[in-house]
Amino acid sequence: MGFTLRNVPLLSRIGADRADTLRTDIDAAIAGWSDALVLRVDRRNQVLIAGDSVVLGRATSLGDAPPEHAVFLGRLGDGRHVWAIRAALEAPEDPSVEASVLDLRRAGSIFDDASAQLVATATALLNWHDSAGFSPVDGSPTTSIKAGWARLNPVTGHEEFPRIDPAIICLVHDGHDRAVLARQGVWPDRMFSILAGFVEAGESFESCVVREIAEEVGLDVTDVQYLGSQPWPFPRSLMVGFHALGDPEQPFAFNDGEIAEAQWFTRAEVREALEHGDWSSTSSSRLLLPGSISIAREIIESWAAQD
C-alpha cells in the first residue's frame, strides 16, 4: 500500500526569501545593512528563542558593514535582510523579552516557519565554515565570499561551496499493516526509528535504499517510493525520505553492526507509541519514537494514519 506525507517536514517549510541574487550584489548587501537583523549562533549551535521565534539583533551592532565571517540568510517578509554569525549569545535588546537558550534539535518543533528556516540555514553554513578554512586543493587558507556562500582560494582562484551529505531514510512496510522499526546499539532499549544511511559515490537514492536496508537489517526491499526531503544540519546532511516493501517472512540479519535490534510492528502498536510522545517522553511505553523535528516522525505518522 502506498502513502504520501501528510505534512511538509518542519525543517523543509519555506519561511523566508533566501534572496540568493543578493549574495553577489555587494552594493545591495551594504545598502540593506543599516536595517538588517543578525542571528547569533554559539559554538554549541544554540540560539536565543522567545515564544516561537528566534531572537534577532540589530546588524549595525557589528559595525557599518557585514563582517567577513557573517553569512547572509535571506530576506524577511518586510524586506529586511538577515545575517548570521558564530558568536556568544547576547541578551535581547528589549529587556522585557523573555528568551531561552535552545538548539534546533530541542526547539525545532516550536519554531515558526521563518525561524526554523533561518536557524537551519545558519547552522549548516556556519558548521561548514568552521571546517573549510583551508583549501582541499593545496592547503592554502581560504576566505569567505558571496556573503558566506562560498570560500575562495586566493592563490589558485578555486571556489569551494557548502558541502551537503545526502542520506536516505526509509520506512520498510509489508504493504498492509506492519512496518519495520529498528534501534541502533548506542540508543536506549526502547528507542526505535526507521532506517537511514548515507548515499555513496556513483549511487542513486533508490539504489542506496536497497543497499542500506540489506546492510543494516538484511531485508531485500522492492517498490522504492520517494516521499519528501528535509535538511538536517548536524552537521550538513540532507535527508531524503522513502518507503519500500519488505517481506516479514525474511529473517533479519544485522550485517554492518550498526543496528542492534529490529522488529515488525503493527500499525496499532505504532499509533499507540505515537500517542505517548517521543524519545523525550517519560512514558513506560515499550516503544518510543523520534521527535517531531525529524522527517522520520512525519514518515511514521503518515504511515500510521492510513486506514
TrEMBL record:
Database matches in Gene3D superfamilies: 3.90.79.20, Nucleoside Triphosphate Pyrophosphohydrolase
GO-annotated molecular function: metal ion binding; NADH pyrophosphatase activity
One of the protein's GO biological processes: NAD+ catabolic process
Catalytic activities: a 5'-end NAD(+)-phospho-ribonucleoside in mRNA + H2O = a 5'-end phospho-adenosine-phospho-ribonucleoside in mRNA + beta-nicotinamide D-ribonucleotide + 2 H(+)
Presence of keyword Hydrolase: yes
Name of the top EC class for this enzyme: hydrolase
GO CC terms, sorted: cytosol
Cofactor(s) needed by this chain: Mg(2+); Zn(2+)
Protein's name according to its UniProt entry: NAD(+) diphosphatase
Taxonomic lineage from the root: Bacteria, Bacillati, Actinomycetota, Actinomycetes, Mycobacteriales
